[in-house]
């Protein structure tokens, strides 16, 4: 029988996923779950038939140049591939896959949780109660802002953006969106969403803005200092996509100057570092990249990785191929 392909996994994955992988392939796991150094990554590139990286691995063209003769597939654990130079991988004949769909609902839930938590001061209130600082109810105590009837501007109306739109509709928000391409009329009307071709014009009119586009060269600092300045001072910003899509310094500056009402951030420009000024603000909710952090999503993401590897090895086209520039 043919030797099983060597699959190198860069991080600890959920147990059922690792068990299944070990049944199917010759697997090298990261038992202590340490982040791979650049050297370890290059070494893995040189030895593996299939590499399973995550967002903590920077697969730039230099690292990719270490690909050994047997490496054919990079099956990313995660939907975002901004840590992989996909064009350079393709030039080297490497196939790249990701894990869409299975984390859509959970990430949208987290965005919705932030859309609720920030205007309603949920975490601030919880902190106050927990710290024993509640001196009693008064009519003007801990007032936040209503979200029903308010305008939600979704930046990036793909799978996750649309799932957020469905949720926010249920909370009585008016849905607006900006996207590279306008949705099909039927989808747009099912979501009761209003399209803005101009991101600038949309931003100037929203009460809450939630980011759901991937990080690409075209979306780096899409919410630049200039665009953030278009937001009204009562607006909230939510980001469960990638920190790089927002100019974080500009955002922090505006929050500290009262030019924005608050922010809910699950992602940051220099993860795991968080701008220390954010840590001191009461009107922000900060999460450590937890959008898809459910047992269910992570097991399903692992299952997707397996399906992609299996299809590839069996000579089929893997279902979740990522093409350069996609
Ligand atoms: C994961 C994510 O935490 O899929 C993504 O793009 O950001 C998260 O779901 C991460 O990718 C795991 O590698």
TrEMBL record:
<dbReference type="InterPro" id="IPR006139">
    <property type="entry name" value="D-isomer_2_OHA_DH_cat_dom"/>
</dbReference>
<dbReference type="Pfam" id="PF02826">
    <property type="entry name" value="2-Hacid_dh_C"/>
</dbReference>
<keyword id="KW-0520">NAD</keyword>
<dbReference type="GO" id="GO:0016618">
    <property type="term" value="F:hydroxypyruvate reductase [NAD(P)H] activity"/>
</dbReference>
<dbReference type="InterPro" id="IPR050223">
    <property type="entry name" value="D-isomer_2-hydroxyacid_DH"/>
</dbReference>
<comment type="similarity">
    <text>Belongs to the D-isomer specific 2-hydroxyacid dehydrogenase family.</text>
</comment>
<dbReference type="GO" id="GO:0051287">
    <property type="term" value="F:NAD binding"/>
</dbReference>
<dbReference type="InterPro" id="IPR029752">
    <property type="entry name" value="D-isomer_DH_CS1"/>
</dbReference>
<dbReference type="GO" id="GO:0030267">
    <property type="term" value="F:glyoxylate reductase (NADPH) activity"/>
</dbReference>
<feature type="domain" description="D-isomer specific 2-hydroxyacid dehydrogenase NAD-binding">
    <location>
        <begin position="112"/>
        <end position="291"/>
    </location>
</feature>
<protein>
    <submittedName>
        <fullName>D-glycerate dehydrogenase</fullName>
    </submittedName>
</protein>
<dbReference type="Pfam" id="PF00389">
    <property type="entry name" value="2-Hacid_dh"/>
</dbReference>
<feature type="domain" description="D-isomer specific 2-hydroxyacid dehydrogenase catalytic">
    <location>
        <begin position="17"/>
        <end position="322"/>
    </location>
</feature>
<keyword id="KW-0560">Oxidoreductase</keyword>
<dbReference type="InterPro" id="IPR036291">
    <property type="entry name" value="NAD(P)-bd_dom_sf"/>
</dbReference>
<dbReference type="InterPro" id="IPR006140">
    <property type="entry name" value="D-isomer_DH_NAD-bd"/>
</dbReference>
<dbReference type="GO" id="GO:0005829">
    <property type="term" value="C:cytosol"/>
</dbReference>
